[in-house]
Amino acid sequence: MKHLTTEWPLLKELEEQLVRTLQKVFAVLLAALLEEIDQQLAEARDKRRYQLKDKRPTTIQTLFGEVTFRRNYYYDRQTGNYTFLLDAELGFDGARSISPCLEETAVELAVECSSYRKAARTLESIVGYAVMSHEAIRQLVLEAPVSLHRPVSQRHGRVLFVEADGLFISRQGKGKRAKEEKILAVHEGWKRNGSQLELVNRRHYLHEGEGDVWERFEEWLMNEYAYDPCRDLLIINGDAASWITACREYFGKRACFQLDRFHVARELRQCLSGHPRWREVRKKLAKQDEEGLLVELNSAVGTLEDEAKEKQMAAMIRRIESMPGCIRDDREWLSEQGVETTGMRPMGHAESVMSRFAHRVKSRRSWKDQGLRAFLRAMAARIDGIWRRNGQLVEEEETRTAASASTKSKRIEQAKRKAGRLWADVVRQNLPCLQRSSGTPIHQALSALRDGGWV
Questions:
Q1: Beta bridge partners of 192
Q2: Which domain holds residue 305?
């Protein structure tokens, strides 16, 4: 069998070689496609308005590596400006040297990864080389045109569920103290997707500025959810921070406020862990039996044998008593308002929301206000699934060609067909195995695939 033995590369080596080859093929084909579209734009342009000056080379970084091509440079006699029609037609800025897909991926990695450095390393592993530094990614986040305004297309009832919490984040600069970022998560309920539960029409409100939180939040609800104060009801869940509990006074009978059970359970555990009544207290809290919980807590007063815990317990009892209904099941309140509660679940999503934000922006990090605001907006848009790139190049409408959408689509299809003719030659030139002489095992394998109709 020795005469049949052939030296083959390892699968890992084959995979790496193929990825690099496909990057080269992509670069050649994309450059050819862009130059073909640019040529068609040159032929279809208004020659009395756009004077061709010269062709200028440019190199952009993409998810498949560097792509170098040449594009026409024009003088616009009408506006007196110089422009590239290709940039305006395809909605990118060649001067930035970054493709829109690469830019969007970098910003998304910055949100998903634990740091900008980790995002840069992840991007390097995808592209195959250090395509962008962590500082360049940070600048992209700062400049990203993220909009959190996208009104829901369809309401699913008249109840909005709100989870409110604050996140204290350190600031850069000597002597600067941490500031609280107020974040509110809103949704319209729950729906099942296979074995998973999803929140319906989830959005995040990031409070910016010094105005009243709930007044600004209500305006936001009107814009995003078409909120009607005379019709819609709010279920608001949060801890006992003064700015959160202020919602009871602001919304009045239109809202039901609940103390977040995570915070209540944590504070009760601090006071009563190991106490004889701890088990009964846990049962009352799990059942959201507010009256029964108060009875158990009052019976435990004076038996804690710790002055600090006694004061903490007394403060908790006063807090619960000052906000009637803050422990009971919100579905009972909704039923009293004539709302069908089938399929609704208990509140308590706020802490999980905050933990996701906290994992990324805290962890011994400090921020400048501008950088933090930009990052939180990008992260909220990503979590809500409304992230979209609005295009970095801002051109007036008259600088674009007058071609209709159908003409533009036809032009791109023609360019794709012409560039596609290069596919076979480019692949053959970049895959060494396709250059083997006949009679070799690889040649025989490929021939068999061709004869079998696979290629």
A1: 197
A2: 261-345
The dihedral region occupied by 59, where left means phi > 0, alpha psi between -120 and 50, and beta the remainder, is: beta
353 in any annotated domain: no
Q: At residue 138, what is the residue type? A: R
Q: What pLDDT sits at residue 9?
A: 67
Task: Give a yes or no: residue 379 inside a domain.
Answer: no
Which stretch of 281-285, 314-318, 440-444 has the lowest confidence by average pLDDT? 440-444
**In this structure, are residues 150 and 133 in contact, taking their beta carbons and an 8 Å threshold?**
no
Query: Where among 319, 345, 371 does a domain terminate?
Result: 345
Number of neighbouring beta carbons within 10 Å of residue 427: 16
Pairing of β 159-169 and β 233-238: parallel
Asked if residues 278 and 293 have their Cβ atoms less than 8 Å apart, the reply is: no
The proportion of the chain whose per-residue pLDDT surpasses 90, expressed as a percent, equals 37
Share the mean pLDDT of the chain: 83
C-alpha span between 112 and 58 (Å, rounded): 31
pTM, rounded to two decimals? 0.76
Q: In what order do the strands lie in the sheet with 233-238?
A: 203-206, 179-187, 159-169, 233-238, 255-259
Which of 87, 116, 143 delimits the end of a domain? 143
- The total number of structural domains in the chain stands at 2
Band (95; pLDDT cuts 50, 70, 90)? confident
Determine the distance from the C-alpha atom of residue 223 to the mean position of all C-alpha atoms in its chain, rounded to a whole number. Answer: 21
Assigned domain for 418 exists: no
Nearest Cα to 116, choosing from 388, 412, 367? 367
CA nearest neighbour of 255 among 334, 199, 184, 187: 334
Asked whether the beta carbons of 112 and 382 are under 8 A apart, the reply is yes
User: Which pLDDT band holds residue 25 (cuts at 50, 70, 90)?
Assistant: confident
In angstroms, the CA 241 to CA 243 distance is 6
Give the C-alpha separation, 144 to 67, whole Å. Answer: 23
d(CA 320, CA 308): 19
Distances (CA, A) of 145 to 92, 377, 378: 14, 10, 9
**Residue 105 in contact with residue 131, Cβ under 8 Å?**
no
Task: Answer whether residue 181 is part of any domain.
Answer: no
Q: Which residues of 328-339 are buried (b: 16+ CB within 10 A; e: fewer)?
A: bbbbebbeeeee
Instruction: Write the pLDDT tens digit of every residue in 171-188.
Output: 888 778 888 999 999 999
